[in-house]
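Quick one: structure for this chain?
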Amino acid sequence: MRAVKSLLTATLCAGALAASAAGNTMAQQLLTIAHQWAHINYQLPDKAKEAAFTKLEAQAEALAERYPRRAEPKVWEAIVISTHAGVHGGFGALSMVRHARDLLLAARKIDPSTLHGAIYTSLGSLYYQVPGWPLSFGDDDKAKAYLKKALALNPDGIDPNYFYGDYLHRQGRDQEALAALSKALRAPPRPQRSLADSGRRREIRALIREIRGNS
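Got it. Here's what it folds into:
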């Protein structure tokens, strides 16, 4: 489950959160969760992440329960759970990513375009990174379809382009992957998300170096 660790560094569509944060309690809490997620994922030492994600997961779950008819809290709960799964590892992580997938599918029923297509970016990321049957639900064809939907909603976004590039690399389509990753690096900065953006760009550059080193 190492791949899931980088997975939902995904879908930090914080521009939408920041734009609606003023005077909106739910949006303010979502932005707080986003900031905490980035801090844990990019700044804490590995040994401290398990406990920190466990605490943040409880906060995200409580927020989703408080707003059951809103898609955004479910998406963020899924993001936290998926990243936590990568830290947790082992077979226990498989049940965690299944729960994250179910949350995303529930959010899609409420508002499929929320957070600039974050649902589809997250689903696509899950489907190509988790094992396939009989261990889990991984499916490269579904992953591609979801990532394409994410790009249709957010063609210039850093996350959908990064994950599509990673997907293409795993498919052996490295030239296409490099094009997607280069586009991800050119993505506009997200308001109030400088830490998440800088962390994502480090991941993009590392993947570009890996691809070029193998060519």
